[in-house]
Amino acid sequence: MNSSAMILPASETHRLEVLYSYGVLDTLDEQAYDDLTRLAAYICHTPSSVISLVDSQRQWFKSRFGHHANQGSRKDSFCTHAILNPDTIMVVKDALQDPRFMRNPAVIGPPRIRFYAGAPLITPCGEALGTLCVFDTQPGDLSDAQRDALATLARQVMAQLELRKVIRAQQDSAHQLRHSQRQLEQQQQLLQQQQLELEEVNQQLRTLSLTDSLTGLFNRRAFDARMSEEVERSIRTRTPVSLLLVDVDHFKSFNDVFGHSEGDIALQEVAGLLKNNARSYDLVARYGGEEFAVIMPGTSTVDAERIAERLRASIAAHSWTLRTVTVSIGVATLAQGDSIQTFISHADQALYRAKEQGRNCVVHWTGLQEH
Ligand SMILES: Nc1nc2c(ncn2[C@@H]2O[C@H](COP(=O)(O)OP(=O)(O)OP(=O)(O)O)[C@@H](O)[C@H]2O)c(=O)[nH]1
């Protein structure tokens, strides 16, 4: 008999799929199966018994009692014939008298099978995976009781296979669950990271939207927002707040003489000097073209004038490369009932007076009232 002459069950493709779904092929020996083959040989009075699973080209033995090889060629196997009729136990009383097996290598050579009985292993969906079989080197037969017992043991083999399949499925789904949980955790981490990056970008955008690009100081928008906060705080806490408006003197002529780019550099230097000489809690902003503003929380008239003078002096004393740059500063301190517009206009009027007085000087709005 060669493989081309091998008779296959009608549902061979499906049968093989079902067999593989048990994941039993090529697994290690297990006591539960070995107990069943030993019992089968004992009950049937044969020296050998195997649990044979019929693969596409081989028969593989999950358990062997009295038999050494753990697999054999399918085309020479008795079990290939046994699974063709899943409802019956195949009994070959004397293989040398049976035309199907008389020239079989397992009959004329080792293990020299003469007697064979195989009970098919039937799955719940009706496929025969292989057999629980017993065999002997002498001719033989089974009593009805032995046949019943062999069929019962074959059902026990199937019960073991089913049990392991269920356990494996549970382990797989537990593994799957752990895998999904890990994936979920990774996605959450990724999401958190993206949120952090988004917040960082938003923060950068917020900073950019409040920053003057030439000088790096706060821009007019930031000034307006902070001004509202500080005026509101001053009224609520009854603490003073002062404002400086700082304007570069004769800057038009600076531009005219040295060019706009040098003018830009001079504005950057003025900005740096204001920032370095103001206090950390003062807000220094670029108010307009060559005009700056400093909001000074908690600062009274006297202190505001003193700080304004320090700022003016630091700019005048700076070692300018092209020509000395000076600033005029108007100072105002919020008075009771002042609106923001009034507060700013007081500082503006004081600045105007400082320009009138010859520039490079500080004038406080209260001083204007006294004159
Ligand atoms: N380089 C440069 N110049 C600017 C910038 N913004 C405003 N200016 C110039 O600043 C000059 C301001 O001139 P004016 O308002 O006439 O005042 P001033 O010449 O400084 O004279 P006083 O303020 O009266 O001392 C103008 O020539 C503007 O072009 C800027 O970003 N860069």
UniProtKB/TrEMBL annotation:
Pfam families: GAF (PF01590), GGDEF (PF00990)
Superkingdom as given in the UniProt entry: Bacteria
UniProt key word Coiled coil: yes
Coiled-coil ranges from the UniProt annotation: 167-211
EC number: 2.7.7.65
Catalysed reactions listed for this entry: 2 GTP = 3',3'-c-di-GMP + 2 diphosphate
Annotated GGDEF domain residues: 239-367
Keywords: Coiled coil
Broad EC category: transferase
Protein name: diguanylate cyclase
Organism of derivation: Pokkaliibacter plantistimulans
